[in-house]
Design brief:
This protein has helices at 4-18, 65-73, 77-83, 92-97, 99-102, and strands spanning 28-34, 37-42, 49-51, 59-64, 87-89. It is an alpha+beta fold and 103 residues long. It has a single domain (4-102), classed as Nonspecific Lipid-transfer Protein, Chain A. A hairpin with a 2-residue loop joins β1 (28-34) and β2. The longest helix has 15 residues, at 4-18. The radius of gyration is 12 Å and the shape is globular.
Length: 103
């Protein structure tokens, strides 16, 4: 099973470095992972990932740690968990763009 901390500190930065086109999404995401903290992903600027809240998030994703780690392992679960209310977002269109990052 994926580890939230490893995902945000290692996997996600490596994925963005390997595929700079992901920055074309042009949004700042805030991930509120219940049981694992808050993380920000800036795809407007340098593609940086930081622990803590974003100054101005375009999209906030709220999800429990166990559900998040299942989504990282199997991105197809994201839609199902959203429909079940286990994942919440402030902007669905931007949240859908995350499939490019999780795939």
């Amino acid at each position: 099973m994926a580890d939230t901390f490893v995902f945000f500190k290692e996997m996600l930065p490596a994925k963005i470095a390997a595929d700079p086109d992901l920055k074309t999404i042009g949004a700042v995401y805030q991930f509120e992972i219940e049981g694992a903290g808050v993380w920000a992903l800036d795809l407007k600027g340098d593609g940086g990932v930081t622990e803590g809240a974003a100054a101005e998030a375009d999209c906030v994703i709220t999800v429990g740690k166990d559900d998040w780690e299942e989504i990282v392992d199997n991105p197809m679960l994201a839609t199902q968990y959203f429909m079940m209310g286990r994942v919440k977002t402030t902007r669905l269109g931007l949240a859908i763009q995350l499939q490019k990052i999780l795939a």
